[in-house]
Design a protein that fits this description.
Radius of gyration: 22 Å
Strand order of the largest sheet: 7-6-8-9-10-11-12
CATH topology of the largest domain: Rossmann fold
Largest sheet: 7 strands, mixed
Shape: elongated
Structural class: alpha/beta
Number of domains: 2
CATH architecture of the largest domain: 3-Layer(aba) Sandwich
CATH class of the largest domain: Alpha Beta
Order of helices and strands: HEHEHEHEEHEHEHEHEHEHEHE
Strand content: 15-25%
Number of helices: 11
Length: about 325
């Protein structure tokens, strides 16, 4: 992740202490990176941000990186330390870090670009999706439900009934229900709601979809996602393919397909905003970027799909997204 062209110092704040100086080398473009902790998707975001920024012409960047090992109490110290080195801007990754950066940086003049923030409006980072805030804008990792449904229709063109498994007691699940209802209608699909408030009910509730649904979508639900193996077993028993919000279940051979936000794209989107700020634009003039269809990554398990009596359509055979 760390290229020879970058001067990077990464610290585990809990282990090494944030009192250490950053000691950055002189450069025309100094950028601070505040990361919540080491995590594959967050690391992917940082790597893509750096690569895209170089591609966009910012070739003299020097990076000061800090992370707090997912200890939210250390975020203020981390951000303060980065600000003290007078960077051109700060990349704040995840909602807690971006909120901490907003509080610490305020109107100090150091712009903040956030990344991997699901809903910046709800997090009070930007006033709307149409404009950035004073000193802050960024790239969201919000999954675009309409794009998910379009992918489902592309994968299973003959599908007419889409089952949605969700927890009625989880706000995010309910919010997605409204969005997926509209998206399904737009794609000519009938939505079949399957509410779950107990994972013990999964086998019965999923099995009841026999003859009532052609495909099941499992969102990033805190209740349902951990129970994907149980959902997959029940769905396979009635030959209904599953499209999941996370690709790991596809790699594990549990579900037929997944359509998830690409964190490489999130990092690239953040870099595009950063390059404009470096060029002199105000963050307030730059709307936060929502992932589009192209910002998602598909993964299809041909073997699992075949077990449900389906096959990969010709339109997806060259997608470079197939696993066996």
């Amino acid at each position: 992740m760390i290229g020879a062209t970058y001067a990077v110092r990464t610290a585990l704040a809990a282990a090494l202490g944030l009192g250490l100086g950053l000691g950055a080398a002189s450069a025309e473009t100094k950028i601070g990176i505040a990361q919540f902790g080491k995590h594959p998707q967050l690391d992917e975001t940082v790597t893509a941000f750096k690569a895209e920024l170089t591609k966009l012409g910012v070739t003299d960047a020097v990076y000061d990186e800090l992370q707090v090992n997912f200890d939210a109490t250390l975020i203020p110290q981390m951000v303060t330390k980065l600000v003290s080195s007078n960077p051109k801007l700060i990349l704040a990754i995840t909602t807690p870090v971006a909120q901490g950066a907003r509080q610490i940086v305020g109107n100090s003049g150091t712009p903040v670009v956030f990344a991997a923030v699901t809903d910046p409006v709800a997090a009070k980072l930007t006033p709307s999706w149409e404009a950035g805030d004073t000193g802050m804008t960024g790239a969201s990792d919000l999954q675009d439900v309409s794009s998910v449904v379009k992918f489902i229709k592309k994968l299973l063109p003959d599908a007419r009934r889409l089952a949605y498994l969700y927890n009625p007691g989880e706000d995010n699940d309910v919010a997605v229900l409204k969005l997926i209802t509209e998206a399904a209608k737009a794609e000519g699909l009938e939505l079949v709601e399957v509410g779950l408030d107990n994972t013990n009910d999964i086998p019965i509730r999923v099995s009841s979809l026999a003859g009532k649904a052609d495909v099941i979508y499992v969102p990033g639900s805190n209740l349902v996602q951990p129970a994907v193996p149980a959902v997959a077993a029940a769905a396979l028993g009635i030959n209904i393919p599953i499209v999941n919000a996370s690709a790991q279940a596809v790699r594990d051979g549990l579900v037929a397909a997944a359509f998830e936000v690409s964190y490489t794209k999130v990092g690239q989107n953040a870099a595009k905003l950063a390059s404009e700020i470096i060029a002199g634009k105000s963050p307030a003039s730059l709307a936060p970027i929502k992932p589009t269809y192209e910002d998602h990554t598909a993964l299809i398990n041909e073997a699992v799909l075949a077990k449900t009596g389906q096959k990969v359509p010709d339109s997806l055979k060259d997608c470079e997204c197939l696993v066996k």
